[in-house]
Amino acid sequence: MDSQAIANRTVESHPTEAHEHPSYLRHHFVTVEQQRETVSFGMWLFLLTEIMFFGGLFMAYLLYRNWYYDAFVSGSNTLSIPLGTTNTLVLILSSFTMAMGVYSAETRNRKGLIRYLLLTIVLGLAFLGIKTVEYHAKYVEHHIPGANFSVEDFVHPSDPRDRPLAPDMAQHAQIYFFLYFAMTGMHALHMIIGISILFVLLYQAYHGAYVNGHSSTIDNFGLYWHFVDIVWIFLFPLLYLISRHHL
Amino acid sequence: MHFISPVLWQFLVRWLNNSALFPPEASAISTDVDAFYLYLLLISAVGLVAVAILIFGFSIAYRKDRNPVATQIEGSTLLEATWTIIPLALFMICFVWGALLYFRIYDPPTNAMNIYIVGKQWMWKAEHPGGQHEIDSLHVPINRPVQLTMISQDVFHSFSIPAFRVKREVIPGRYSTVWFEATQVGTYHLFCTQYCGTNHSAMIGDIVVMTPGDYQSWIAGSTSGSSLAQNGERLFASLGCNACHSGQASARGPNLAQVYGSRLQLTDGSSVTADDAFLREAILNPSTRVTAGYAPIMPTYQGQVSEEGLIDLVEYIKNLNSNYRVQQTLTASQAEPGPASSAGAGSSGNQTQSRQTPGKAAQKAPGTVKQ
Amino acid sequence: MSTIVSLPNQETATLPKVNYLNNGYGLKSWLLTSDHKRIAILYLMSITVFFFLGGSFAGLIRLELLTPMPDLVASDTYNKLFTMHGVIMIFLFLVPSVPATIGNFVIPIMVGAKDLAFPKINLLSWYLYVVAGIFLVYALVNGGVDTGWTFTTPLSTHYVNTHVITAALGVFIAGFSSIFTGLNFIVTIHRMRAPGMTWFRLPLFCWSNYAAAILMVLGTPVLAITLVLVALERLFGIGVFDPTKGGDPLLFQHLFWFYSHPAVYIMILPGFGVISEVISTFSRKRVFGYTAVAFSSVAIAVFGFFVWAHHMFIMGVSNYSALVFSLLTMLVAVPSAIKIFNWSATLYKGSITFETPMLYAFGFVGLFTIGGLTGVFLGSLGMDIHLTETYFIVAHFHFVMVGGMLMAYLAGVHFWWPKMTGRMYPESMSQLAAVTTFIGFILTFFPQFILGYLGMPRRYHAYPPEFQVLNVLSTAGATVLGVGYLLPMLYMPWSLKYGKIAGSNPWQATGLEWQIQSPPLTENFVETPVVDHEAYDYEWLAHKTQHEVTTVG
């Protein structure tokens, strides 16, 4: 009798394994601990992928900033520091509420979890709202690269503190704005995805999930949310702050 | 063989008659490249034979019929080290040899004659300094280093002459160079090897290597009447460059005489050598690198001058030893604006005049200029 | 000639009553499955479709090149043919080939797990693959793409009027499919190993797939963002890669090759793993220098990230960076040489038999050796100038990718076929296929090395007449090669019904996957295995078999 037959026989004698596991333990994991570690490891790896994804954009930013320094400076001068700072604060606050959400899930505090998830959603939406205002301003000022773009603001700046750019350099401000929109757009896309997931989590938390000791989904979403936050912490100084002539 | 397939036989005979395992060796570098190729073939053959002996030898010696039970062996650090170090050493020889060749192929000698190449979908345009233009062909003299300064007008192309063993990407927006010294008279293939769109495979041409005598008569026979520098001079005047680059102390633009090859201080504190690429960039993106002491007021000529025009301008500035002719074109164009003035400036009468200091030339009234 | 195949008595043997194949019927049980084995089968079927689609383009290309004149198809059509051949073969066949089919099937079993770490993401990865395929087929039937698989800017962004964005999106999606596969493998190998399964007891197949997965996870996102930039530039006319608008086309080259060079190792590393398994099994011997082979995979993955600019030696990278990249390229060639010698040494004092997987593996070793050594030609700076962008490079990467990877893939499919289906493929037919493939391959691609040195540029629709002889040889070889690839398409489906019952371990191999029934149960193992032996421990296997015979028989 070969091993195959043995396998067959064993299967017949043990039709299905007894349901001694908690319901949230997926069938292919042995222990809850293993499942938790696995999922968290997967999340970190995914974030590594995300870093490489943004890395390509940062690479392009560094190259062109080096080439067209003046255009990048003038471009960043047109961004609103108050709005950018507010957004940074909003995001940091949302990271805090997210962390509190994770804490609430761990301490099995359903109300706290719902409250903090809701707050995180509100702050995330606030960030996107402010971002929309900024995008709209760019549209009005003809700073969106492409057909709508006008070099007028850079060749003849209205603010006397701004150095006027030569027309060819002013054209290169398009590259700055392209990178600005690509980078903040990618970041906003990650925010939108994050907020959509938050709504799902909120719905599930409302129905009592994640407060039974199994909160690794919340933990891992928290990692994602902090990652998106950290990307902004890099974007904000690179796009808004460094080398400005004036604040 | 010819009993089996007469057609295939014909092919093989034709192929062997042309002994086509190597392209012709028609440049100074080609024998060196071939020598390196033979070395690489040799180590490949050694490696392949070694692996083949091991695989076939062991397969025969230790097939199950002969050796029913395998002997388990963990491994051997000594052997691992051996087959790490030997290939590494062989590859390092390749690296050094290859690097030496690379530096020779891509670093032109200073005495090389320069020809400009413009690649565009789907043709090669060669521009000789004397003003001779060629399309899809390039005439060069034998035994003389020739440097090609190349640029693409649209997409990536690649300028490849297999018989010379040289090739270089022709890139939009920046000059690339390659050089060779032809050693065999004849006509050789020129290929575009970088995929460049629909008619990529039609972007081919001939490299014609000629004896010095033939080359001289070809040069004389295909002249277009004015050299690249002369074309550049005309363009310089018609674009109004001389209005600022007049060479006068009060001029708004830097003095261009003898600027080529010199070291320039820029406003951002760095310094740069004014080579072909810098001159081209200065015309298209003037404010990227502004010479110290000047305001970034120069307009861009992006989209106004073709690559050929840029080559003319670069060639003109390269050959500009004094500002005398700049001022003459300036004063002439003030006297009678229009292309006629620049044509007049190119006439032979001026060339016999002794060089004068810019200051003196500037003081001349238009009427005193000898037309 | 003797054989190691040990099949159960065909008179009485049957397929196991319960297995992953008959656990649920109907389309839904397949399309919504989270079983890694079923997903592997889905992958196997879909990549076979795309392989033959891409292969038919290759056939048309070779037919066109039979004569120097551009007579079979128009230039644009020819350009679309080689573009689609490249895109489909690379992104829809080579990248997922071994990992997504064989790897998906056996890696969880090899490490002693019931499934991959994230079964649903695994299924998502297959759906993304299918969506990517749909995008590419849509681009194809609506007029095709003619940028070359490299999407070179500014050609792809401003100069062609074909479906570049659709194709780029297809590749983007295929990229995420491969990221998810890689992520799943890394996590599974880290966290899902059975008790006793230490890192150095893992089969080498796991090591090489692990190394490839690192490259997938870290390299692919860079390609993704690059293609996004290409699509945006094309959509909105912004010049981030366009020199006339201040962009840098070389930046595209750097970003593209930052992925696409490691991609070569994504394609070949899993093949290395297959060869280690096959050579060990059919010589009944532990792989010589296990740790050296394992670490050389990781070394390739690490060095693989730092050699991308060797695709740009003639593009005007500075002389000194060319030096560095050439040096690193030489270094990355060494681990491959180590592997070749270790496989050869594995045969020493073995007890060798020559079943089909072994023949394919021998073919792999020969062709990959040639492919690898010609890579050294191209990594040598001065030689690269003459050889790059010619048929030499075409021959080189086909030797590595087709001669190497496809041989390894076919070796693997034959090797694990009994495990996947429970039935044996017909041995003599498949041996014929292996030999035909090898001969056809050499005939097709060896002449291209000579053509390349003669200077024939790649992607040429028409060529000077003196190159015809070698092109005719190459096309003739392609015919033989085509037959070699079609043969398995005939006998593999046949074997599903008429093949001999394989039993759990027809090759007497040592991997955990051979100790369970074929086809396996949905849960793979009845109880979690406890591993107490090294990989490729044939003495353990002999002892175990003997023990079974004495206790059960």
Write a structural description.
The complex is a heterotrimer of chains A (247), B (371) and C (553). With 247 residues, chain A is an all-alpha fold. Helix content of chain A is 74%, strand content 0%. Chain B is α+β, with helices and mostly antiparallel strands and 371 residues long. In chain B, strand 6 and strand 7 (166-170) form a beta hairpin. Chain B is elongated. In chain C, helix 2 runs antiparallel to helix 3 (75-94), helix 2 (36-64) packs antiparallel against helix 4 and helix 4 (97-111) crosses helix 9 (249-283). Chain C has helices at 27-31, 36-64, 75-94, 97-111, 119-141, 155-159, 164-191, 204-236, 249-283, 290-304, 319-347, 356-379, 381-387, 391-421, 427-454, 468-498, 538-552. Chain C is globular, with a radius of gyration of 23 Å. The two termini of chain C are 29 Å apart. Chains A and C meet through helix 1, helix 2 and helix 7 of A and helix 7, helix 8 and helix 9 of C.
Uncertain runs of chain B: 335-371
Counted by DSSP, the helix tally of chain A is: 8
Please mark out the parts of chain A with pLDDT under 50 across 5 or more consecutive residues, or reply none: 1-19
Quote the average pLDDT of chain B: 83
- Cα distance spanning the termini of chain B: 79 Å
Largest sheet of chain A: none
Rg of chain B, alpha carbons: 29 Å
Radius of gyration of chain A: 25 Å
Largest interface: B-C, 94 and 96 residues
Q: Helices and strands of chain A: which structural class?
A: mainly alpha
**Which word captures the global form of chain B?**
elongated
Q: How many β-strands of chain A, per DSSP?
A: 0
Q: What is the H/E string of chain B? A: HHHEEEEEEEEEEHHEEHHHHHH
Main β sheet profile of chain B: 5 strands, mixed
How do the helices and strands line up, and which of them pair or pack?
The complex is a heterotrimer of chains A (247), B (371) and C (553).
Chain A: H1 3-13, H2 32-67, H3 69-77, H4 81-106, H5 110-140, H6 152-155, H7 167-206, H8 216-241
Chain B: H1 6-17, H2 30-61, H3 77-106, E1 113-120, E2 123-127, E3 133-135, E4 137-141, E5 145-152, E6 157-161, E7 166-170, E8 176-181, E9 186-192, E10 204-210, H4 212-221, H5 228-238, E11 263-265, E12 271-273, H6 276-284, H7 307-318, H8 324-335, H9 339-345, H10 348-351, H11 358-363
Parallel strand pairs in B: 1-5, 4-10
Antiparallel strand pairs in B: 1-2, 2-3, 5-8, 6-7, 6-9, 9-10, 11-12
Helix pairs in contact in B: 2-3, 5-7, 5-9, 6-7, 8-9
Chain C: H1 27-31, H2 36-64, H3 75-94, H4 97-111, H5 119-141, H6 155-159, H7 164-191, H8 204-236, H9 249-283, H10 290-304, H11 319-347, H12 356-379, H13 381-387, H14 391-421, H15 427-454, H16 468-498, H17 538-552
Helix pairs in contact in C: 2-3, 2-4, 2-5, 2-16, 3-5, 4-7, 4-9, 4-14, 5-7, 7-8, 8-9, 8-10, 9-10, 9-11, 9-12, 9-14, 10-11, 11-12, 12-14, 12-15, 14-15, 15-16
